[in-house]
Structure formats: C-alpha cells, structure tokens
C-alpha cells in the first residue's frame, strides 16, 4: 500500500507560482453561474460590481514590454494597482465570485489563499515573491487571515509592494459561523490591518445565510481499521498511521503539500488522535486545505475527525483555521457534494 510519508517533493519555484489558480471545483464557475438570492440584493450588486471591475482590468496595461521570465524580469507599471474586498460571512459565495473575477481577468494573474501566499514567501523569499507576482495584472487572495500578527504584517507589506508595481488586488475573508455580528466588522479589521493600503480598496458587501447550512461540526462515525484498509484499496490511494503523517508534515515545506498530493485519489488514516501541539495543528490545517482543494476523500479510524483539535484550540487565537480544517475534513469524510 502506498504511503503519504513516502512522498517528499522537491521545491519547484516556477510550479509554486503556476499552481496559484482557483481550486478544481471552481474551474467551471463564472459570474453567470452564480445564483444571487433575490432576498439578498447585495449579492446581485456584488456580481455587477465585480463584472465592472473585471472590465476595468482589461483597460490597464500589464507593462510587460520589458518582461522576461517569471524570475529576474523587470516591469514598468504606470498605474498603481487598485483593490477590491468582498465582505461577508461563510457560505455566501465569496470564493465563487473571486474565482469568477480571476477567470474574467486577462493577462498574468494568480489566485491563492492567504496561507498559500505566506507559504510562497517562506519558500521563495520576500524579494523573489515580489518579483514573481509584480508582473501580474491581478492577484486574488482568498480567506485573508488576521489571527497571526507577523503574517498579517508580511502580507500587508507584500500587497503594498505589488500595488506600487501596478498589480490589482482582490481579497475575501471569513468570519466564524457562530460569531454573530462579526460579518460587518471583518472589513473594518481588514482595512485597519492593511493601513496605508486601505484607501486603495473598495469594499463590496455580500449578505446572506450560509447556503451550505453547515451549522455544526458533526463528523461521521470513525471507521474501523479494516474498513479504512478496504476503502483505500484503489489506484492512487495512500494509507498511513495518523501520527506518522503529522510527523512527516514537519519534513515537507507547506508550499509543497499540493505537490505531495499529486495523483492521490484517496487518503486513509488509522489511529487518529487529538493534536495537542500548535505547530503540528497548523501544518494539519494546510494539509486539510490542500485535500479539500483537490476534493480527495478521507477515510479515518480512531478519534472522530471533528475532535482532532481540543476545545482549548477551538477557542484560541487560531480558532478560525481549526474550524475551517474540521469543516473540510469532515466534509471529505462524509463525501459531501460540494
């Protein structure tokens, strides 16, 4: 049986930038496939505003007359970039709209989560990340996170350098599903943290309830070991002891987790147990994001996936990350149709 712990992909700098595209589930999504709720007029208004924004991008030259490759190139950008920020809670279609904007934009562009961009800086270094992205017409940042001050400052600095180069920006962030009233404050937090860039961002509100109606973290009952083995008897599946996986993640830079999953069709974990170390937990969050992006089913025995993170972790500073990871892992275990 193949194992995830046998996979240690090498750093491919060009691929890290090429992989900054919307997840496969959004390959076919466009503004025309978004279905605004008639009871929430802000949704239709958001589609119209983003379509206008995309049309405006078409009139901004990407200044690539002196361009070279992804790295070592020089760009002249005559116009400072503008930004647009989608403000709303879970399940109102912000990622769908952000991906639609990316599809509508022409020229060089990138799409990634906040964590993917911070991991890119960790893998390439700040200067090379700026160089790799400064020739893009549009950079989309999904799920902008404000729970790590160091990463927030890093991203704000990166965005400042990109706007100076004329790159247009689009971003979203999420509030917790149980955080009543926080949806409207997300934009205020975002604009405060990016400070000098705030005047360059227009806020677009997307109201509405969570269309997925995921108001709990209920996970399916754990499988027994025999069931996990049986479920992963397929081409491309990997099977590991959960502790071995968490240890292996520390040996692979998070920017390479996507490459580590190349060709994987299913993941099996035996002896799942609670994660008590913060560093281990944050690496598991990144893996959960990449599994979810690729829609790879998860089969697990041991502790229910909804209980991987302790109540203390779910109440702490990184709780948004942990709630997202639990939601995504349990969805993959349930086989939800997304």
UniProtKB/TrEMBL annotation:
Basic and acidic residues compositional bias, start-end: 7-18
GO biological process: cell division
Name of encoding gene: zapE
Keyword Cell cycle: yes
Pfam families: AFG1_ATPase
Protein biosynthesis keyword on record: no
Name of the molecule in the record: Cell division protein ZapE
Source species: Pedococcus ginsenosidimutans
Residue ranges of the region described as Disordered: 1-39
InterPro entries: ATPase_AFG1-like, P-loop_NTPase
Keywords annotated in UniProt: ATP-binding, Cell cycle, Cell division, Nucleotide-binding
SUPFAM superfamilies with a match to the protein in the record: P-loop containing nucleoside triphosphate hydrolases
Signal peptide: none
PANTHER family: AFG1-LIKE ATPASE, ATPASE N2B
Residue ranges that the Swiss-Prot or TrEMBL entry lists as coiled coil: none
